[in-house]
Amino acid sequence: MNEYPGLVATLAYDGLCSFEFGIALEVFALPRSEFDFPWYRHVVVGVDQGPMRAANGVTLLAEYGLEQLAQADTIIIPGWRGNDVMPPQPLIDALRSAYARGARFITICSGVFVLAAAGILAGTRVTTHWRYCEQLAKRYPDIQVDADVLYVDSGQVITSAGSAAGIDACLHLVSRDYGVQVANRVARRLVMAPQRSGGQKQFIPQTPVKKTTDALQRLMTQILTNLHLTWSVRIMAQEVNMSERTLVRRFVAVLGVPPATWLQQARMSLACELLELGGDSD
Question: Keywords for this entry (predicted)?
Answer without folding.
Answer: Transcription, Transcription regulation
